[in-house]
Design goal:
Order of helices and strands: EHEHEHHHEEEHEEEEHEHEEHH
Strand content: 15-25%
Shape: globular
CATH architecture of the largest domain: 2-Layer Sandwich
Radius of gyration: 19 Å
Number of helices: 10
Helix content: 25-40%
CATH class of the largest domain: Alpha Beta
CATH superfamily of the largest domain: ATP-grasp fold, B domain
Distance between the termini: 16 Å
Number of strands: 13
Oligomer: single chain
Structural class: alpha+beta
CATH topology of the largest domain: D-amino Acid Aminotransferase, Chain A, domain 1
Length: 322
Amino acid sequence: MRVALLACPAYGARLYQTDPHAFYQGEKTLEAVREVLESLGHQVEVVRAGPGMLQTLGELGPDVVFNIATGYSSKREQGHIAAMLEFLGVPFTGSGSVGHMLGLEKHLAKMVWLSRGVPTPKFDVVYTQEDDIKKDLRYPVIVKPSGEGSSVGITGDSVKDSPEEALELARDLLEVFEPPILVEEYVEGREFTVALLGYPEVRALPVEEIVFQEDGMLTYSVKTRDQVIPVCPADLPDDLAHRIQTTAIQAFKALKCRDIGRVDIRLSRDESPYVLEVNTLPGLQPGYSEVPRIAEKAGMGYRALVAEILDCAIKRKAERRC
């Protein structure tokens, strides 16, 4: 089968300005996925995301696209890339444009979850320097960009104890990041991530706990310096683990996501799960990224993981869908 492996642009692209770590992760993932696809007997052509990708894909005429492109100039373009693939009409792995766009804009995702009864912390958004914050939020709150991934824009100083401090930080972030800025009630407690896999039905892999060595939350600095201890499967009673997995699946489906994803959840001190965000295009770097690591704990090797993700797009090809 002819497989186009759609990857991020080359080094130097604007995409890496706020997250230089992402380039090296992306290239290692590219090589690992290509190796697996070729070992499965597929003819693989690497295509870089960008303005010319539609023409390139049109000329290649692949049977399916394996999408690992997190953007061209910004991670907010994940949805745009999926929309271009939908326009082309070629089946591709991962969520469609709607899932990516909702997942990347955390405030929109939270609106959907609240309308569907999925528990998520109460929030407000700041679009301009003149905006204020809702009076009914409980403090402390965490202040972060609504449209960034990989913990970009989150530091050890992101949790604020008063409306004045929160608004000041939100206005500072507006000078650096695209609006809006998310102001969200901070949930004290343990943090977990749930990897999801499959099409047409998605299943939850074992719950992983993120144990912090510093800061108590996944800041950009903590993430890039790997200052966390992942524990998988998490030390949880079976019923609580199942409740967290069920909540993750509900959040994933509510945003029309598919194939693969990862849902971050905070467990409050009264053991209530709250969805923080969905990663609609989680990393696939073997030996490093959460999803391959969690899959391995579930007895699924890297080759089997990549093969199942590809199979999701192959199923849609048989259904004559993207």
